[in-house]
Fold these 4 entries.
Entry 1:
Amino acid sequence: MSAEQFSAMLDEILRKHTALNSAHASPQQKAAFCAGLRLEELALARACAAGNERAWQDFISRYRQKLHGMAMHITRDGAHAAELADSLFADLYGVNARDGVRSSKLVFYAGRGSLEGWLRTVMAQEFINRYRKQKRTVSLEEQTEEGVQFSAAVPEPACTADRRLEAATDEALAELSSEDRFTLASYYLDGRTLAEIARSLGLHESSVSRRLDRLSTGLRKRILAGLRTHGMSHAQAAEALETDVRDIQLNLRSRLTQDSAAKTFPDSKFPAPRAGDGSTD
């Protein structure tokens, strides 16, 4: 990778990082942000995404076995683990071309956490997506025969939230790593238990609980600071945070996952989770 390509890659990441994309960000702030990235892993991932064979040989030697280990940890089955790992490896290599151009998921790695952690998050999300697709194959007739009751559609809420709250929320979510976004989406959007999330990420349940507590507290502070930056007083910012998130015109799921299904956080205050409990009361 040439110096010009490397510089263009960093510029792209800075543009996507909302907090540093303003005219107020100094060269020192941008340099400090770039210094905090996993630059060597970032260069490897982007070189692989570009089809560099030398980079791919390096990637295979480092991560092929780890991918199979991650898949085995998630699926607990050798055959399914091999299928999941091989499918993800194909997506990373970019075997599916669009308009004649290879499309690799590695282009989405931004170096804000370890490449191994990012791969583990992407694999866990792929496993969940597969599970959802399997559940969607059950026909409506079969569900009706089993006594499933279907609720009426809920009308879209009126747009009542301050646009500054939407902007501050978007900026706060953009600062999260992919693994943190996956953790929040799994717990608050998908209603998965701490134990399920811990198994997907290869962590202990208590670690996931502490992470969610840290994330919820940190997000609230970031959104408050963002509202002040957007011109609100402290009292106005605190009042804005009482808004029901269903009134915020942001696709929160799209900010947290690559899933297109639209749901919302059940509680805008992001309550601290209780170990072993997937509720958000």
Entry 2:
Amino acid sequence: MLFAALALTPAALLGQNPAPTPPFAEQAELSKVEEWVLSQGIAESIAPELAAILGVGSDRLPVKLKAFRTSDGTNLAFAVSTNPKQQGIVISALKTIAQKTEIYSVGNAWLTDRSGTLRQTIAVDASGARVLPNSSRAAKFKDIKDFFIKKLQATSPTTTLSPSPRISATAKSGR
């Protein structure tokens, strides 16, 4: 029931139809990324302005976060809400710009959930954030989502069901 409420809240608040649900295998992988971020991510929060435009509240949204900086200075982030009332996942590609006395971010952020269904797309620049049609940045969303799936797979290469050689060797070496 909570999952159903999560799936309907952003679409109802923002009046947009969600994109089609991705295949089952991709859903399972995104759930695993969410678990990885919740268990190993750092505690942060999403700014009230960004949370409001994403439709997940008007206060700072507490999240667990995994972020990686690209060679061009863009931060790719996967943030999972830790607020039981405002669950969701925010994936972003933002670059921090410092000009004289101003510091701001430029890029995109997407609201999704465990299923990987794209719920909301926003663009962020010096003038603030604005809602975009999901189709306008869907390919970039998929690329960044795939980036995090690959990062998870790289950190936990033992995804097969067969026993690992280390376990077998240990079992055989016992007296």
Entry 3:
Amino acid sequence: MRKSASTHRPVRPPHSPRRSRPITPRLGTRGQPEESRAAILKAAVAEFAEHGIAGARTDAIARAARVNKALLYYYFEDKDALYEAVLDHVFSGLRARVMPVLASKLPPRQKMLEYLGAYFDYIAANPRFPRVVQAEWMRSGAGSSRMQRVAKEYFRPIFRKLADLLREGIEAEEFRAVNPMDFLPSVVGVIIFYFGAAPLMKTLLKVDPLSVERIRERREFILDFISAALFVR
């Protein structure tokens, strides 16, 4: 009589626990709050620049940011709150760029040139920013609470520093005697308008006004143009 085949199985080594892989949260979840919020703001800048606050669509913003609408509303209560956050994003970045220059101990001429360069470079790096605010502010007017808040938090501190700089340069006889109420809006206009009109210039002139070469040439022109208008030779 044959012995039945042994059913004995070799003893396996004790099961070693699997190494847990780090979980990388998807952008569309709450697991990456800074990245998700930044992506939403970037997409919102593009949408508001193209369509204004009235025409902007939150589903288009969520799609461009690669998040779902529920997550967008988790970070921002509604479209108005998102627009307010975009304004803070735009102007806090500008303030962070130019205020250290205006607070420096540089001589008036050098400080003005540094300020102009910093302001121009910020807008050149973010050419959609002017279009985000212009149409809405022309529509809502100076009486809107939104515009008053932005003016108080961002515009007035910069304006005061610039007015002080102009006064200092005039007293040192380095600047012409200009009125800040006339000169400073003119500076803003000559810098901002170029970027706001860039799409039209590209169509009419058949050149790319935002190319690296054109931006470099425009920057040199701005500094020379404003220097000629302000500096005492």
Entry 4:
Amino acid sequence: MTPDAQPRTRNVLVADDEPHIGRIIQLKLEQGPYHVTLVPDGREALEHLRGAEPIDVVLLDIMMPYASGLEVLQELRELPHRRDTPVIILTAKGQESDRAQALELGATDFFTKPFSPKKLLARVDELF
């Protein structure tokens, strides 16, 4: 890459029903080469995932209205065009059973709230 070449903007879908957490994630990621789409629940996340828009990584809260993050993850893995999309689960529920279920469903990583936005950004950066 030449010194003045810009990294490609990556599209991130963030689904979290806590607006302040979603906004913190959005602000942190948009400091890097990321465009963030923020949705407040599982139903809207599924609408975006079923569509054709490019999504490079998905950040999902577990406890959300309409569809949990684990339900969204399960359906995402059944969508042919999203099957290999990296997914990071974010949750206030730190139970090992949630982590195990998320990883079994194909989550790439699992962060327990509260988490460091800086560490989350570093993990997203690692994916690329």
